Amino acid sequence: MAPLNILSIGASRNIGYFAAIRLLEQGATVTLLLRTPSVFDEDEAIQKFVKFGTARLIKGDARKEEDMRRAWEEAGTVDAVVFTVGAVPSFSITKGFVVDPNLVAQCMLCVLRTLPTYASAPPPRIIALSSTGIGPAAHKALPLLIKPLYSALTIPHYDKAGMEQALAHVAGWPLDPNHGEPRVEILGENWTERLPAPGTLKDRVLVVRAALLTDGKCMGDQVKAKGKGKAPYRVSQDELGVYTISRKDTAHFVVDALARWDEFKGIVNVGY
Question: Count of domains in the chain?
C-alpha cells in the first residue's frame, strides 16, 4: 500500500499533533495547516520530517476559505483529513474565561466548502474528533461522577454537535435527533449552501467521540510492545459509559482507524 497523504487541521498540539507524528513515522506525508507554524520551530520530532519533506507546514486559518484552498492545493491529492480542531478558553478581565462558541463547526464548514474533487481519485476521507456526552441520550449514559463536569461543557458541545451535523449532511446520514435542530448561532443561516451534496462523502466520514481526555501514556503502544496485540481502549457505536482516555491513545485509535477504515462506521465512541 502506498504511503498516505494526509491533511491535518488542528495539529499544533494534543491529539492532532500525536496523530501527525505517528503518521509521519509510518511513512505518510502530512500537510499541517497552522495559524502559527513557528510553534514547531524547536520541535525536533516535527523538524526531522520537515527536512525529509514529508511534513509540510502551511500558515493559515481553517476558518478562511482562501487559506483552506491553499492548504488543499499544497497538499495535493489527499487521502484523508485528520480534523482535531478544539477551542481553547481565553481569559478576559471583564468576562472571565471565554471560549469561541463555534470555532469547530465553522472550521469544518470551511473544510467542506473547499473540498476538492479529483479526476482519478475518490474524495478524501475525513476523520473528526468529537466528544462523548453530547446530547441527552449520550449525557445520560455518562458515569454519574463526571456528569456535573459535562454539564458545564454546554457551549463546546453545541459546537461539536454543529460539526457532526455538517458531516452528517455530506455523508448522507440522518441528523442525530439528540442534537436538536441545527443552531443558527453555531452553523449560521443557510449553512448547507455551498456544501457538497448529501451523500458526496458516503462511507468517507468517521466521527470519533472520545471520553474525557487525559495526558496519560499511550497504552496501545505498550500493549503492542508486550505482544498482546489488543489496544486497551474500547470502541463502539453504542454509548460506552466510560470515564477517560488519554490523548495519546485517542491519536493511536485515529491512526489505526485510517488503516482499518472499513471496520468502523459513521460515529464511534472510544474510552477505557
Answer: 1
Classified as helix, coil or strand, 199 is: coil
Instruction: Show Cβ contacts of residue 190 under 8 Å, excluding neighbours closer than 6 positions.
Output: none
- pTM passes above 0.70: yes
Helix (H) or strand (E) holding 151: helix 147-151
Q: How many angstroms separate the CA atoms of 272 and 241, rounded?
A: 9
Grid cell at residue 126: 475525513
pLDDT digits (tens, 9 = 90+) for 13-25: 999 999 999 999 9
Q: What is the CATH number of the domain that holds 261?
A: 3.40.50.720
- Write the pLDDT tens digit of every residue in 102-160: 999 999 999 999 999 999 999 999 999 999 999 898 999 999 999 999 998 899 999 99
* Closest to 4 (Cα-Cα) out of 98, 20, 154: 20
Domain that holds residue 208: 5-271
What one-letter code names the amino acid at 266? G
